[in-house]
Specification:
Shape: globular
Strand order of the largest sheet: 2-8-7-6-5-3-4
Structural class: alpha/beta
Helix content: 40-55%
Radius of gyration: 21 Å
Largest sheet: 7 strands, mixed
Order of helices and strands: HHEHHEHEHEHEHEEEHHHEHEEEH
Number of strands: 12
Length: 400
């Protein structure tokens, strides 16, 4: 099931096959791993899940209670395409409270998760064929959404010399080779967990302004940092496009609600797109999202669990021979080099799943060029699950 789809060569006789762009979209491998794990569990096996970037904690009770009250009221209908006024105003206030940045509520767009936000932002900003810089390793959906929309992802390899983040120099070099139209960064990052320092974000923003490029900042893991707070790109550039979501910090993946902050000149374009794509984000999810901002105490308690998992794994993994990993500044991932054991991360992770009952995501999901020697572990579960995973991995590696 963990396969890669070759780029098809189409002929006129293939008119009834899927469109060429859609055929180039690769599987989201983590979801394939999740399906394989479920198959093992259906036959009575047990699996420790470290593959999916999804909080294992339930949505905080206060958020669920707000949605339940709205459901009891009975009116569950459309909202304005840009989102309810109250949620947009609450998101606006969040930027003042959390970052000291003023954002007019009129610039906030409520979206169907960050995924919906990327589609809206890409369509609003880029002409067909436009080149958009992303990092490798990086979140695979960026690449696949861009391809599906007829855009060209430009994967720029990042490494320890830049602390696994884009720099002005890397952006300028890619732009000289062939002009870019935009740059996308993520901090904290998936899969690396790296947090960009404020001056690094400011430098990227300045380079994008100098070159006349759109700067899009994915901030979905804000709130989930361990040694230093995350910085919004709006602190460096009021014209930056911000993508965020309630999915990670607020444990609301299944609610599918997020937001954009965009320059005023893009609002009407995005509104028209949203009107036609989804009419509006589900009302109940918007109610829950507004309540989430008052659930900080519950969310911080959940985050404390991630911090304990992180501390345990940073000590335990090197003890079993898996100590070559990137900085784990934020999010809930460890991106580990397995090159001493295998140059085929797909086979390695498949063998771990079948032989140890631990579900891990192959690095090829995040880096097509170098991911054959890496894997990503999510520590969004419980400490007990992390301990069990290490025990199983240790036993399996000693047996292999």
């Amino acid at each position: 099931m963990l396969d890669r789809i070759p780029t098809p060569v189409l002929t006129p006789q293939d008119a009834l096959l899927p469109a060429e762009r859609a055929s180039r979209v690769q599987p989201f491998i983590v979801m394939d791993v999740m399906s394989q794990a479920a198959a093992i569990e259906r036959t009575g096996g047990t699996v420790v899940h470290m593959e999916v970037g999804q909080p294992s904690a339930p949505t905080p009770a206060s958020i669920r209670a707000a949605a339940a009250r709205a459901l009891e009221d009975g009116r569950i209908g459309y909202t304005q395409a840009l989102g309810t006024d109250s949620l947009r105003e609450r998101i606006s206030r969040h930027y003042k409270d959390a970052y000291g940045v003023s954002v007019a509520a009129e610039r906030v767009v409520v979206t169907t998760g960050s995924s919906g936000g990327f589609i809206l932002a890409f369509l609003a900003c880029f002409q067909p064929g436009a080149r958009v810089a992303i990092t490798a390793p990086g979140y695979p959906a960026y690449r696949n959404i861009l391809i599906a929309l007829g855009l060209e992802p430009v994967a720029i390899e990042v490494g320890p010399e830049t602390r696994f983040a884009l720099t002005p120099e890397l952006i300028a070099r890619a732009h000289r080779e062939k002009p870019l139209a935009g740059v996308l960064t993520m901090s904290p990052a998936n899969p690396t967990g790296v947090v960009m320092a404020p001056d690094a974000i400011a430098a990227v923003a300045a380079e994008c302004r100098r070159l006349g490029l759109w700067y899009i900042s994915d901030e979905i893991y804000h709130g989930l940092t361990y040694d230093q707070p995350a910085t919004t790109a709006l602190s460096a550039d009021d014209d930056a496009i911000i993508v965020n979501s309630f999915s990670k910090y607020y444990c609301m993946t299944g609610w599918r609600v997020g937001w954009l902050v965009v320059p005023q000149r893009l609002v009407r374009t995005i509104e028209r797109l949203q009107q036609n794509f989804s009419i509006s984000v589900p009302y109940l999810s918007q109610v829950a999202g507004e309540a989430a901002f008052d659930a900080t105490a519950e969310c911080e308690a959940i985050k404390a669990g991630y911090a304990a998992n992180r501390a345990y794994l940073l000590k335990a993994l090197p003890e079993i021979g898996l100590g070559d990993f990137l900085p784990v500044d934020g999010a809930f991932y460890i991106y580990c080099d397995i090159g001493r054991y295998s140059n085929d991360s797909m086979a390695f992770c498949r063998d771990v799943l079948n032989g140890a009952g631990v579900a891990i995501t192959p690095g090829l999901d995040f880096d097509e060029a170098r991911g054959a020697r890496t894997m990503r572990l999510s520590f969004a579960g419980s400490l007990t699950e992390c301990e069990e995973a290490v025990s199983r991995l240790d036993g399996w590696m000693k047996r292999r």
